[in-house]
Design a protein that fits this description.
Blueprint lengths: L2 H6 L1 H31 L2 E2 L2 E2 H16 L3 H4 L1 H8 L14 H12 L3 H13 L3 H25 L2 E2 L5 E2 L2 H11 L3 H38 L7 H16 L2 H30 L4 H13 L7 H17 L5 H6 L7 H8 L1 H21 L13 H9 L5 H32 L4 H17 L2 H42 L6 H4 L1
Antiparallel strand pairs: 1-2, 3-4
Helix pairs in contact: 2-21, 3-8, 3-14, 3-21, 5-16, 6-12, 6-17, 6-19, 7-14, 7-17, 7-18, 8-13, 8-14, 8-16, 8-17, 8-21, 9-10, 9-21, 10-19, 10-20, 10-21, 11-19, 11-20, 12-17, 12-19, 17-18, 18-19, 19-20
């Protein structure tokens, strides 16, 4: 080969070298992610103990709080509508912005791609177990977000720091378990930082890329391009802190939820006559699954696992956002927080499930190789050809909003461990994992994401069990004042 030949073929040789490096990097990343997942996500008789731990926590808090997930629902709607908003109280964002920020972390691709994965692996019956777990999860969300408000720290500059690491350390110290509180707080922060890298940046970048590539073929084999775009956009938002994150999330989430719900409703209306049979299929296969690995346990595990991943109840993540809300009533913030599992799991996940089951893509050999958000896109495309484009837009913004919310979660935990001077290190690492997620293998990313997020539930629920009596006392006091008229709405106070 002559020098002239080498010179004129440098672009081709450089591209080949680049592809080789990316291929090797992707293989190494996939091996690491699978290894971590195998260590953390252990199970007995097919049931992952961490999933059982979170579900039992939800069940316990539901009884301990006297079914707050049911009778507190109406009051939660009133709070979300701003009837009790007090702008002059301590906090950085409104309760609605806190709700939107937490929702943006949950109403991400877990509600779109995660549901499809659950059905593709566990069958349609997984949807029923997702719904039941979501209803119970409302109680866990109430407890952890109430605690986050109760034990939050207002810094000298007016900014707020709060979340499980604060209520675990301070709350357990009040009970005489100071050393234990420090240990579980440190564990939570470590898992949360890893979770922000996996469950948000990696998973969201990975699944949103799969959908975008299905409608923009040029992106195929160019995950690095998509990763760089996402990195740039996320950077523009996270440099503004929780106030900018809350503002962006409060704008994006309602619009994207609306678009996704309306699109799903159209598909359900077009196939209205098939809805009863789809519901029957979901209920029947929840107890008598057909051709599902692991039988009943397999479909149960998939439903519970994906429910936890979508609403994040019990892992303490959204408590970090709700700690920053402007309110002096911890219970009030906990009550508005219980809406999250209902919106994410009971409403949006069920709409996704019905669309997938009605269109039959989960059992169609043509879509057998699809998984996650890509399967949902295929279901949308069976009704109107351009619906996948609309879904892709929603997926992009869902992923984006989830990333910016989780960047804040991880940032608060990093600050708790290492101090604010090193936050730039965290932000750089967070942005790098977004890029890695766009080029990594989907299955490896999902396993790693689940492992990191679920691990947060170990220290969080452990401490919440100790502190739930404090929450019950706060709840009783709040409801007595509310029912007696001592707590008034904005209209009444004016």
């Amino acid at each position: 080969m002559t020098l002239d030949h080498i010179f004129f073929n440098l672009p081709t040789l450089a591209l080949a070298a680049n592809n080789s490096v990316l291929t090797n990097l992707t293989a190494i990343v996939n091996q690491i992610l699978n290894g971590i997942s195998n260590v953390l996500f252990f199970s007995i008789s097919g049931m992952p103990l961490i999933v059982l731990w979170l579900v039992c926590g939800s069940l316990f808090f539901t009884f301990r709080m006297n079914f707050i997930n049911i009778w507190g629902f109406r009051h939660a709607i009133d709070i979300a509508l701003g009837k009790y908003e007090q702008p002059n109280q301590n906090g950085e964002i409104s309760s609605f912005q806190a709700l939107s920020t937490a929702l943006s972390a949950g109403v991400g691709l877990g509600s779109i791609g995660g549901v499809a994965f659950a059905i593709s692996i566990g069958g349609p019956g997984a949807a029923l177990w997702m719904t039941l777990a979501g209803l119970l999860a409302m109680s866990s969300k109430f407890v952890e977000c109430t605690l986050a408000q109760k034990y939050r720290v207002v810094r000298p500059d007016g900014t707020i720091a709060g979340g499980p690491m604060y209520y675990l350390s301070a709350g357990l110290a009040e009970m005489g378990y100071q050393k234990l509180g420090k240990i579980v707080s440190l564990l939570f922060c470590i898992f949360a930082i890893a979770g922000s890298f996996g469950g948000s940046s990696m998973f969201q970048a990975n699944q949103s890329f799969e959908v975008m590539a299905s409608v923009v073929p040029w992106l195929i084999n160019r995950g690095w391009v998509y990763g760089l775009i996402m990195v740039g956009l996320v950077t523009l938002v996270i440099i503004g802190g929780i106030q900018r994150i809350g503002l962006v999330a409060g704008t994006i989430v309602p619009v994207m939820c609306g678009i996704y719900i309306l699109t799903s409703l159209w598909i359900l209306i077009v196939n209205f006559s098939s809805i009863p049979s789809a519901i029957e299929t979901i209920v029947t296969e929840a107890f008598s699954p057909q051709a599902v690995e692991g039988g009943l346990i397999g479909v149960l595990v998939q439903g519970l696992r994906r429910s936890t991943f979508t609403n994040e109840a019990g892992i303490g993540s959204s408590a970090i956002a709700h700690a920053a809300a402007r309110t002096e009533e911890p219970v009030r913030e906990g009550i508005i927080a219980l809406l999250e599992p209902f919106i994410v799991t009971v409403v949006i996940c069920n709409m996704t499930s019905l669309v997938i089951v009605i269109t039959g893509v989960y059992k169609n050999s043509e879509f057998a190789e699809f998984g996650g958000a890509e399967m949902t896109a295929a279901a949308f495309g069976t009704v109107i050809s351009w619906f996948p484009i609309l879904l892709a837009i929603s997926v992009f913004f869902f992923a984006f909003s989830t990333m910016i919310s989780w960047s804040y979660y991880g940032e608060i935990c990093w600050d708790y461990l290492f101090g604010s001077r090193t936050l730039i290190v965290y932000k750089i690492l967070f942005l790098i994992t977004i890029f890695i997620g766009a080029v990594a293998n989907p299955e490896a990313v999902i396993n790693f994401s689940d492992s990191m997020l679920f691990s947060m539930g170990l220290p969080n629920l452990f401490g919440a069990y100790f502190l739930c009596s404090k929450v019950a006392t706060e709840l009783k006091d709040y409801m007595e004042r509310l029912n007696s008229g001592k707590i008034v709405t904005v209209t009444q106070s004016s």
